[in-house]
C-alpha cells in the first residue's frame, strides 16, 4: 500500500499544478542528451547502498507545456539476501551479497510547471521495461546467472535550467514501481521471504539536454538571453552614443534651418527685394566681423596667458618684462560702413564697383581682421565678371592668410575659376582640397557635384 500512496501523491500534485501552467517555452523542438546519477532499491530486503547509473535520451517538445522522452540506460542495485534458498532450479547461498544489473528503456511524458525565464520545473510520468540479471544467483542446471524481464510505472519531479537557448542542465528524481517482486530475488527460492509487495526503486539523474530545430528561444526566454547579451550595448546607447546621436540630429536640424534662412535671404537679394537685401547684407557683415573678432580675442588670450607664464618665471629677477599683446584690431565705424556698402554693391551685381570698394578697404586697413574677407569678395566678384585669372590670383591670397574665415568659399570658386580656364587638374586639386580640409562645409556637396562632371 505504501507504493500506491506515493503514486497517488504524485497524481494529486499533477492535478493541482496543471491549471497554473503558463503556455510558453520550448514547444516544437527536438531534444537529446545524457544523464548520470544513482538509484536505490526499495524491496523486501534492506538495500546495500547506492550505485551509479547512467542513461541517454531523445525526445520532442510537443508544445510549450508537454514533452515526450525516450530514455535508455544501465543501473545496478546491491542488496544482501539474508536466507538461503533452493528450488525452482536455483541455488542461493546463505547471506549472499547480490547485485541486480538492469538495462532499461523508459517512455516518459513531462509537463513543465513554469516555463518563464531560465528555470523550468516539471513533473513526469510514464512506463518502462527492463531486462535484469542477478550476480551470485545461478541455475542448478547450467550455473548461469538468473535473468528476467519486467515492467514499471514511473512518476517523478525535475527541473531544467537553461544555460543558453539551446542547452539546459536537467535534474530529476523518479519513483519506479515494478510489476513483480523479482528485483531482489524474492521470487526465487522457497525459503526466501515473500510478502506479496512488488519491488520499487528510486532514481536520481543529473545531465545535459540539448535542443534543436524550431525557434531557438521564445517569449521571455528569448528576451532574457538577448537582454543579458546586449546589456553593455544598451548601457552605451543610454549614455554617450545616444547623446551623440541626439546632438548630431539637433545640429543637422539647426544647420538645415540656418541654411534655409540664408537661402531665402539670398534669393530675396538676387530677386531685387531691397528690404531683404539690406537685411542680408547687414547681417552678413556683422557675422563676418563677429567671427573675426572672436578669432582675434582668442589670439589675445593666448598671448596674455603666455606672457603671464613668462612673467612668473622672472618673479625673482631684478626687472620684470612686460607682456606684449597683439596690436588692437581696427573695427572703426568707417570700415564697417564701407564694408556694408561694398557688400551691397556686390549683391546688386555691380561687380567692377564692388571690386574697387573692397580693394580700397584692403589698402586702407591692411591689418584689419576682415582684410582676407575683402580679398575673397574681390575674387568672387572677378569670377562673376568673367576675369578668371584675376579671380585665381586673389583667391589664392585668401588661402595664404592664416586668419581667413573664407577658405572653403575660396576653394570652391578657385576650382570653378580653374575650370573656366581649362586647367582641369588644378580645378580638381582645389575641389578635392575643399573636401579634405573642410568635409563639413556647406559647399562640400557642390564640390562633389562639380568633380563628378569633370
Structure commentary:
The model is unreliable at 11-24, 85-92, 189-194, 216-223, 226-244 and 318-332 (pLDDT under 50). The protein has helices at 2-18, 219-270, 274-313, 333-347, 351-364, 371-384, 388-400, 407-420, 424-437, 444-452; strands at residues 30-42, 51-61, 66-81, 85-87, 90-92, 96-112, 119-139, 145-164, 167-178, 200-212. The protein is an alpha+beta fold and 454 residues long. An eight-stranded antiparallel beta barrel has the order 1-2-3-6-7-8-9-10. It is rod-shaped, with a radius of gyration of 47 Å. It folds into three domains: 2-217, Porin (Beta Barrel), CATH 2.40.160.20; 220-271; 272-311 and 323-452, Serine Threonine Protein Phosphatase 5, Tetratricopeptide repeat, CATH 1.25.40.10. A hairpin with a 2-residue loop joins strand 4 and strand 5 (90-92).
What's the number of helices? 10
Could you say what the CATH topology of the largest domain is called?
Porin
Named CATH architecture of the largest domain: Beta Barrel
Uncertain spans, ≥5 residues at pLDDT below 50?
Answer: 11-24, 85-92, 189-194, 216-223, 226-244, 318-332
What's the rounded overall pLDDT mean? 75
Q: What letter string, H or E per element, gives the SSE order?
A: HEEEEEEEEEEHHHHHHHHH
| CATH class wording of the largest domain | Mainly Beta
Work out the strand percent. Answer: 25-35%
